[in-house]
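Worked example 3. Consider a protein that binds flavin-adenine dinucleotide.
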Amino acid sequence: MLVRCVVNATGVWVDALRQQDRDEGAPAAQAMVAPSQGVHMVVDRSFLAGDTALMVPKTADGRVLFAVPWLGKVILGTTDTDYKGALGEPTCDEADIRYILEVTSAAFPEAQLTDADLISTWAGLRPLVADRNGNPSDISRRHEVKMHEPGWWDVTGGKLTTYRLMAEMAADLACAKLKAGKKCRTHRTPLPGSERRVDQARSVKFFTGIPNSVVGSTLYRHGHRIRNILHREKRNYGLICECEMVTEGEIEYALKKLNVRDIVDLRRRTRIGMGPCQGQLCAYRAAGLFVKYDSATSDESNKMLVDFLEERWKGIKPVLWGDALREVEFGYWIYQGLFGLGDVRFEEEAEKR
Ligand SMILES: Cc1cc2nc3c(=O)[nH]c(=O)nc-3n(C[C@H](O)[C@H](O)[C@H](O)COP(=O)(O)OP(=O)(O)OC[C@H]3O[C@@H](n4cnc5c(N)ncnc54)[C@H](O)[C@@H]3O)c2cc1C
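Given these inputs, the predicted complex is written out as structure tokens:
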């Protein structure tokens, strides 16, 4: 393929993509990214009252531990662990959980965190800028947009909080190269839903009859687009996900307007399945709505239900002890015993046979 300009913003895969640009068999170029694993654990809100995040700046092995109140729960997390495994599969293992629990119990003994407070985990890789001399302690949170050869830029490092700045740097360089005579406008463009300010108290009044918690969470996720979601029809505010207050109206809106292809996408747009039950009680209802709103056939919706539950499973498996394990057994019984989901034969598999 012949192109005039490439922006390689593939996160921890930046080096892999650069390698594809090299002649077959050519030695690997010096790494630009140092993948660094972060592990997070979600616990019940009762662990940390108030809205203030806390940090334990030094633990026994030098890592930082933080506790951040977040959407009715608390996230406990560690910072960087140097990572050498497969890029697609970072996981939070039992050692990570034990470590977070030990540090947390030592730092906040009165909190008495127990296994029953653990909701889920997740792990991810940060695409940190690699130090040219290979010194891990020099790896920082800075970001770089570097020209690797004329017309090809690699974007490395940074944070979620700097993504627009990085995009602006890359877009300006690309526009200059293409002689487009334009500059990036991201710093002047409001995020979708934030174009107009919306007052929560006035919204609650406007949507009389709909619970405040539903109005508040819809507003939080969609800003002034709330009026496209919670209109007067009753089905629009029937709850599908009780943990995150996601309504049928919000799901219909996401399916029709927010480029949602499966339940994992739907989770990203609406937070469905991210609460304490981790999708056990809402995933099948959501799958049904894909069929109702012509976004999937029933075969496709069963398949996406299995994929979604498998994804959620990755996050809850590391914290399955005691009560949590009992709850998951209950969910397994619903999906497997009652719905027989494990026995469903999908069309594509049937065709292969
Ligand atoms: C556990 C954890 C917690 C974090 N917490 C915070 C935080 O609280 N605040 C904060 O500011 N930052 C945080 N970060 C950092 C932040 O998530 C990353 O810095 C940021 O996601 C990097 O953005 P990116 O676009 O460069 O890479 P990514 O977000 O990884 O995006 C790269 C994309 O490229 C795609 N891709 C890869 N290869 C190809 C290809 N060949 N073709 C097409 N697409 C491709 C991938 O699928 C991916 O979607 C956290 C990171 C982790 C791991």
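Take a moment to read the result before moving on. Residues 9-11, 13, 17, 38, 40, 124-127, 155, 158-161 surround flavin-adenine dinucleotide (CB under 6 Å). The radius of gyration is 23 Å.
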